[in-house]
Amino acid sequence: MFRYYRGFSGHSLLRDPRHNKGLSFTEKERDAHYLRGLLPPVVLSQDLQEKRLLQNVRQFEVPLQRYMALMDLQERNERLFYKLLIDNVEELLPVVYTPTVGEACQKYGSIFRRPQGLYISLKEKGRILEVLRNWPEKSIQVIVVTDGERILGLGDLGCQGMGIPVGKLALYTALGGVRPSACLPITIDVGTTNEDLLKDEFYIGLKQRRATGQEYYELLDEFMTAVRQNYGQKVLVQFEDFANHNAFTLLEKYRANHLVFNDDIQGTAAVVLAGLIAALKSVGGTLADHKFLFFGAGEAGTGIAELVALEISRQGKVSVEEARQKIWLVDSKGLVVASRNEILQPFKKRYAHEHEPVKDLLDAVKAIRPTALIGSAGVGRSFTKEVIETMSSINERPIILALSNPTSQSECTAEEAYTWSQGRAIFGSGSPFDPVKYNDKLFVPAQANNAYIFPGFGLGVVISGAVRVTDDMVLAAAEGLADQVTPEHIDKGLIYPPFSIIRKISANISARVAAKAYDLGLASQLPRPKDLVKYAESCMYTPVYRSYR
């Protein structure tokens, strides 16, 4: 495809990351755009450029150096950055996102070179619409916004949390195919409680204590109103790494009247539910045939539990209240039971069933006899040998999901799960683990990575023109992911498909989400495409170079 670019010539063309091709400009393009002499005489293919850059990235032994090299490439040559990321996603995903992006956020003030998103602080209160209009791209489809208060379990990083929206949106493009120009990373800076940052002379944010209460919510209200006024009701706003108390409040407050999604709550729940559905391909039966024990009864754990209950309700055509009877929680005081109702937080009460008190996890496993044990408490090595051996005595194929991050807080390792279950466990984790060999069989641990869900989910919202996000759309995304798991994957111990086919996975999830939006009457992109998978694939951004006349 040929493109005319008036106003771009010579040096300015080379400095524009969206149009720069570096040494891939052809002889004709060099003459037409006054590039002759501004580049060495060789003309390289994009594939050769990619090969050279991958070699350069691999030369860095420190992950943060690799991250900085890739961010430099993104700012210099956008299409080459995305081609490199798409073609080498399994190798580079941990560099552009977790775990490396966490260190990048911690050191963001020191490595800051040029702004990659939009910064909205308390200084801009009353002027947020004006700030949004300063962003050069006008056709925005997805916004990822953070206030930096809970960055990847690293705590309050304030303004330096910008690395998270930037990284998430890079994955929206690479994994989900949303155009880079349609993505907007935003950090809302209301201060920080991090004393080290407040004392850091290189800190790039407001040097004041974090605003809370009315002042905080008024700023968020102005932000959401300005987004809708500037971009319309079909721009997806993804809340990212807000502290739990604000995350749930903001999601509940805006989901009825705005197109919003919280990956930490809904994305995490969807990827865990998908893993459970896929695991049952080996275990047998439906979700309603099994019991699920959650170790960790915080808002995140109960968020996962609630989505599982909704799916049981949908599959079994029973009430959500009845479906919740299949789900049990263990918190710091033991099994959550009805006799504790007076002291329980509201989100725990719906799972407080009639049962005698049980003080610890091992006794809870013995009493409840669950098929699946799901850890989200952040208590490292809490799935002891005795716990996993008990799960294995109850189940031929026990499902063990150790979801807490980082690795030091994981409830058990992959090796422990496979060894203590004598190779029978179906294992998934929040942190990555190396393959494990047990009795001459190689097991590949499955990582419950939200990147399986949110890129395809976002694309489905975009291509359907959805105006709201519902629980049914989140369930559709989980089912779409589970459907990509084959018997061959299960035989290797995988409850998620390999990341090497993530664009295919995202297209299928996108189609499921879009179909549900159409079924619910929430889609505005009409008429409805006949083949939503093919339509999703046709809408995906591809990073091959364009030819310029």
From TrEMBL:
Q: Which residue numbers delimit the Malic enzyme N-terminal domain?
A: 74-255
The cofactor note reads:
Divalent metal cations. Prefers magnesium or manganese.
Pfam families under this entry? malic, Malic_M
- Can you tell me which residues form the catalytic site? 97, 168
MF terms from GO for this chain are:
malate dehydrogenase (decarboxylating) (NADP+) activity; metal ion binding; NAD binding
UniProt binding sites for a divalent metal cation: 240-241, 264
Query: Would I find Oxidoreductase among this entry's keywords?
Result: yes
SMART domains attached here? malic, Malic_M
**Chain residues that bind (S)-malate:** 150, 405, 449
What name has this protein been given in UniProt? Malic enzyme
Against InterPro entries, the record matches this protein to: Aminoacid_DH-like_N_sf, Malic_enzyme_CS, Malic_N_dom, Malic_N_dom_sf, Malic_NAD-bd, Malic_OxRdtase, NAD(P)-bd_dom_sf
Similarity field: Belongs to the malic enzymes family.
Tell me its cofactors: Mn(2+); Mg(2+)
Q: Which organism is it from?
A: Panicum virgatum
Reaction(s) catalyzed by this protein? oxaloacetate + H(+) = pyruvate + CO2
Q: Name one GO biological process term.
A: malate metabolic process
Q: Which GO terms describe its cellular component?
A: chloroplast
Signal peptide residue numbers: none
Taxonomic superkingdom: Eukaryota
Q: Which segments constitute the Malic enzyme NAD-binding domain? A: 265-518
The protein's assembly and partners: Homotetramer.
* Keywords, in A-Z order: Metal-binding, NADP, Oxidoreductase
In what pathway does it function? Photosynthesis; C4 acid pathway
The record, for NCBIfam families, names: PRK13529.1
